[in-house]
Amino acid sequence: SKQHYTTLTYYALDSMVAVLVTYFLLSGLSRFTAAAEPRPFPENARIAVVGGGPSGVHMAAKLQESGHNPTILEKTSRLGGKSLTLYRDINTNEPCVQETDTFTGITNTETCIAHEMGTCFLHNGYGAVRDLVAEYNLTPEISPEGRAMFSQYAEDEFHSQEMGDFITSSIEAQVEAGLIKVPWWVPSFSSTIVVMNALLDSVSTYNKLHAELVGDVEFSMPDEPSPEKFARMDMTFEEFLLQNDMVALNGFLSFAHAAQGYGYISSIPAFYGLWWVSPELLNGYIQMSMHQQIEEICSWSTDNWFMKEFVRQITKMFVGGDAAQVYRTTTMLPEGYGKIWPKIADAHSLDVRFNTDIVSIDRQLSDTSAPVLITLAGGEVLEFDFLVYTAPHAHSHKIVKDLHSDETTIFDSLESFVLATTIYKSDAVAHYSTTDNKSPIMYNVDKMVNVENDGEWYADRNDMAIFGRSKKDLEQIRVGYQFYEAPCSADTSLCDSDRFPNSAEEGFQEDSENVMEEFLAEMERQKVENVSVEQQFAWPYFHHFPAGSTDNVWRLYDMQGQRKTWWIGASASFESVHDVLNYNLQLLDRFSYTEETKNLRGATIK
Predict the structure, then answer these.
(1) In terms of pLDDT, which residue wins out, 597 or 80?
(2) What percentage of the chain carries pLDDT values higher than 90?
(3) b/e map of 42-68 (b: 16 or more CB within 10 Å)?
(4) DSSP for 434-458?
(5) Contact at 8 Å (CB) between 384 and 372?
(6) CA triple 95-97-101, angle to 5 deg
(7) Do 117 and 84 touch, CB atoms closer than 8 A?
(8) Residue 13 pLDDT > 60, yes or no?
(9) How many Cα atoms occupy the beta-carbon half-sphere of 530 within 13 Å?
(10) Are 271 and 209 in contact (CB under 8 A)?
């Protein structure tokens, strides 16, 4: 009958759909499990995490969430590593504590001001950091408005330009020098159009090259490129920009890269530049620039969903790449990065052992079932199933007594810079921090060119104006920056890249007299008056592989999990907190196959 026929058809189709769904589910799970690798430690493993910086605390929390038992072994009295925040009262300049109102839950960030002495900014791609800020209920980020740009393009060395004017001047100079060719159809009488065309063309070219050479990046570390692609980036970042007709980006990237402590573009391998300067970041910068231009011309705010989406789509159309809606590219945390890591540790009740002096680590590699033995000063021996090492890898040989030759070869090739931050008081700096200037951050781009600029005062930040809207010209507290590509040449005390301050109050055990002398000399040269230094932190910074050995990034990643060890932290990835967190997530994703997932997937596991 017709009803019987319809019923048969229904069941046939239903069975067919069920078979197809089952097939695709199983094949999808098979692909997933083929990509995933077994966790290199048992369920409920005892895991030693050496180092309580951002990478160590984050990884320990994630491992605990997976049912393991991590113990953080931290040699200082604090968590956070290079995330170190000092707090000063906006009225008295004295140390203070940010109090949280028990009724409203609001933390007082406008009178007790956070001063970042290490990790500082977020850019529009810092999703992992924003997730932590939300999860652990920290005060939302804010955007510091305005930059005072000192450079050869300003009136003189004591005058500054706004960011947009500096970018315009740098591109105009390169057009005049013949380094940027102006297409015939661009009206040369309009400097604005010439500059905008050159900038958009360079960003578009960069994004296309990035997609071609680096490809889609799921976390933040790029996949290993083919030898052919690697050859096309086997040069300095500056040479890469010049060779591919993208010199319009030189002005912006000269400070966007070097100011963070990631090296001069004239010498850093292009690979690291491509890692840090993602299409997402450049796309966000163009979005921000468009918002600023529209607001300046129209005199109304574009900080609403409709305008942000409009600008996002226009930017994507002009330069490619992709980013979420971006109103301002760079933001800061009113409570400071230094609060994140203790909050995570407290929320998870992590087992943290401070002031831990490790004498030796024996992984007992001859026996895969034997525990990792960690001997402390005083003779105590701790047993663990697995080791997570976050401290500077170049110094791991001091305590890890059974390094394999593969590990030694990789770690011996690491190099480091020094980024020095100084919290100090002085009178306001003309054309930067005076109350009639709306730029709480200063960059001197001419001091970010090459190694000859080592030690010069190239950046400064007025946190009192950013978070507290302070308006005073006398006894300002600010943070100044110096960078050293060749730190040993400046001071032998800087050669040791295994230095960390024991506490915020104590600072480093050995301060560099040369770094301090250079800072004070720079203050005098720039006519900064009534300078009084409170503290200086000369951080070992940006552990990296130099030209010719950058492939060690992937050699290290390939051997993760071998010899009862994960090697993580800045030495394994990239210095930014964004990258070390994403490296953790990538590692956890790679080793996501556990007995629990096997039981859940049953027969789909082969």
Answers:
(1) 80
(2) 74
(3) eeebbbbbbbbbbbbbbbbbbbbebeb
(4) STT----EEEEGGGSSSGGGTT---
(5) yes
(6) 150
(7) yes
(8) no
(9) 11
(10) no
3-class secondary structure, 141: coil
CA distance 237 to 264: 9
* Alpha helix ranges (H) inside 68-181: 127-135, 163-176
Q: If phi over 0 gives left and psi between -120 and 50 gives alpha, with beta otherwise, what is residue 481?
A: beta
- Beta strands 112-116; 415-426: pairing state: unpaired
Higher pLDDT, 14 or 436: 436
Cβ atoms of residues 333 and 55 within 8 Å: no
- Number of other CB atoms surrounding residue 405 within 10 Å: 7
pTM here is 0.90
Side-chain-facing half-sphere of 232: CA atoms under 13 Å: 11
What is the rounded distance in angstroms from the CA atom of residue 495 to the CA atom of residue 418?
A: 9
- Number of neighbours of residue 131 by Cβ within 10 angstroms: 12
Q: What angle do CA 595, 599, 605 make, to 5 degrees?
A: 85
Tell me the CA distances in angstroms from 247 to 102, 201, 203, 206, 406, one per residue in order: 53, 10, 10, 10, 39
Answer for the pair 375, 356: CB distance below 8 angstroms, yes or no. no
**pLDDT value for 489:** 92
How confident is the model at residue 594, as a pLDDT? 53
What digits encode the pLDDT tens for the residues 504-517? Answer: 777 777 778 999 99
- List % helix, strand, coil for the chain (3-state, nearest 5): 40, 15, 40
For residues 276 and 262, the answer to whether their CB atoms sit within 8 Å is: yes
Token code pair at residue 548: 């010719």
Helical spans, DSSP H, in 233-392 = 237-243, 250-258, 270-276, 279-298, 305-319, 340-348
Task: Judge contact between 572 and 586, C-beta under 8 A.
Answer: no
Collect all residues with Cβ–Cβ distance below 8 Å to 346 and sequence separation of at least 6.
none
The tokens describing 219, both together, are 């976390």
Unique residue bearing structure tokens 């740009």: 149
